[in-house]
Amino acid sequence: MSTEDQFQNVLHSEQNTSQDLSTEMCISVLQEMVDALLILKSIGHWPDIDSDIFEYDTPEQRFKKEIYQQGNVSESLCPQNFSFITIFATNLLEELKHERSYLKFSNSVSTIQKMQLDEELLLGETSKKEIIVKKLQMCLDSERDVSIDKLVSSMESIGKIKDQIENFYIQSEIKINYLKSWENSKLEMQEITFSKLIEEITEDIKTTEANINQDIRVHEEIEIAMSEIIQGFEERVEEWKNKYYEKSKEMNEKLDVLQTKQNKQLEIIANYKELYAKRQQEIDDYKKHKIEQERLRLEKEEKNKKATTIQAWWRGVMVRKGFGKFRKKKEKKGKKKSTDKKEKK
Fold first, then answer.
1. What per-residue confidence (pLDDT) applies to 71?
2. Shortest CA distance to 53 belongs to which of 26, 76, 34?
3. Pick from 16-25, 200-209, 233-242, 298-307: least confident
4. Which positions are tagged coiled coil (predicted)?
5. Beta-carbon neighbour count of residue 108 at 10 Å?
6. How far is CA 252 from CA 87, 97, 99, 221, 247, in A?
7. pTM of structure
8. SS (H, E, C) 95-164
């Protein structure tokens, strides 16, 4: 090993020893401080604090925890008392003894700083909200004054309405008394009028009874006269019934004779109708026969005309073409020469 390496090892060992000495000094100082704090805690009866206080929680989470654990919210979100300092120093002492570092301590410090920052932000928001609450309180006071004014006006209107109701009650009592007196007077007048009507009705009843008796007598006399008239009518009706029976019997006999004559006439008419139908059938058949003969005659004439035209046409064709008996005869050659000679001469 070279001298430089030895020198570096010595320096490194010296540094380690210096660090160990500094940590030991810190440990001894912290141990004395922790012992003193524990003595003060036992004397002052400080409350115990949970060890998870150095874990970061949002203000809402800490607020809920404090309400759940204590039932009320503390004045500060970070508990600043000697118990907090004691547990803080104890944790640092344990970390230095066992791990020879203070990483957890630095993390706890950063956590506390974050919590303090959150607390400051929360306090700022609460101050702003207090201002808003004051403004709302002022608005509430103004609205309360307005509502009180409205209430006063409504109470005044209610008083007026009560006065009107009392006046109405008084007027209604006066009207009711007036109506009662009017009804009593009306009843008295009705009694007077009814008594007069009863007297008039009794007089009318007496007169009607006299008229009824007179009508009964007249009715009896009329019944007697009508019975006599009815008896005379019945006798005349019986007489007319007998006459009607005799006349109807004669008329029935005449009707029987006429019915027999009518039946004979109907038989004769039926025979004539049958004969007429036969003759009419014969006439119709004859007409049909004549029509058929005329049709055949016309058809024959038409055929003859067409046949003659065809024959004439064919005869003309035969004549023009020289067919059949209309063929032209050929002359002999000798005869032609003789004729030529004759022409030359």
1. 44
2. 76
3. 16-25
4. 230-311
5. 19
6. 155, 164, 161, 46, 9
7. 0.28
8. HHHHHCCCHHHHHHHHHHHHHHHHHHHHHHHHHHHHHHHHHHHHHHHHHHHHHHHHHHHHHHHHHHHHHH
The alpha-helical segments, DSSP class H, found in 45-102 are: 59-70, 82-99
Tell which phi-psi region holds residue 48, choosing left (phi > 0), alpha (psi between -120 and 50) or beta.
beta
Arithmetic mean of pLDDT, 201-223: 87
User: Could you tell me the two tokens for 27?
Assistant: 């440990």
The H-or-E segment that residue 258 falls in is helix 103-321
Ranges of beta strands (E only) in the chain are none
Domain, as residue range, for 109:
17-58+79-117
In a domain, 48, yes or no: yes
The total number of residues written for the chain in this structure: 345
What's the pLDDT band for 55 if we cut at 50, 70, 90?
low
- Beta-carbon contacts of 79 under 8 Å, excluding residues fewer than 6 positions away, are 49, 53
Residue with tokens 């919210």: 73
The domain total for the chain is 1
